[in-house]
Amino acid sequence: MEQKEKKADESYCSSCGEIIKTEAEICPHCGVRQKKSSSLHGEKNKIVAALLAILLGGIGAHKFYLGKIVEGLLYLCLCWTFIPALVGLIEGLIYLSKSDEDFEEQYG
Q1: pTM beyond 0.90
Q2: Which residue range forms the structural domain that includes residue 32?
């Protein structure tokens, strides 16, 4: 079997491992949509998420940062009860206790 070399504008499919163009949204070999990190969203930093949860968790800032808009709105609607602030503090500590890989897998 012939081994192909990957060029600069190519990457590997996240599902089947075949070489595909970097800008491809869907693998032409297996049809799986490729995960892209756009410059708008980018990777989420666990320290930033933890600080937002601890300091501004009562208004759901960390949920908005992590892209969970509905949960962020729920925190915002219930901010007068101080329950979201307590939950945000706990979530911030959980974020800090996770490894970088676990955080990226769950929230990235």
Answers
A1: no
A2: 8-37
